[in-house]
Amino acid sequence: MISRFPLPRMLAASIAMSLAASAGVSQVAVAAAPQLHPDAAARSTQDVQRYIVRFAEPALAAHNRTMRADKSKALSGVGLIPMRLKANGRTHLDTHSAEAKVYLGQLAERQSAHQMEIANAIGRSVSFLRTYRHALNGAVVELTQQEAFAVGRLSGVASIVPEYGSAARPRTNTRDTPFRR
User: Is the model's pTM score more than 0.70?
Assistant: First the structure.
């Protein structure tokens, strides 16, 4: 049987073999230990999981704050995004304004550039499973652990973290299952 998580099985097999050797158990008993697939160690490092990559440019929600604090960090050509008065008397960012739409377009262009930089860094083409621009400027990408380390070193990447539930826990979100109609 090939396990999805071969590292614990490899560790258990090596401990059992070392205990058997120290206890003087015959080679027949050691040979009866479970055999692992020859590519188990290589495959464990090549397991693909989803990562959330957050980019350095501010998201739409943080644009005004960034413009007020340090204009050099914001994308060029877009001023402050107007605020809109709600019926309850509170104001919020007008995400439907022309300025907001221009800024979202610029973020989309920057994310495409980041996608090409990621592909160049890891040596294969990548596709974003999801992109985020309003509250967070980032994307979800399927990567191996080594690829994630390479992506994390890129200059335009602010952070990279595994997506919650992508490997450690089973997926319970029914939106992502192929059985949803």
Answer: no
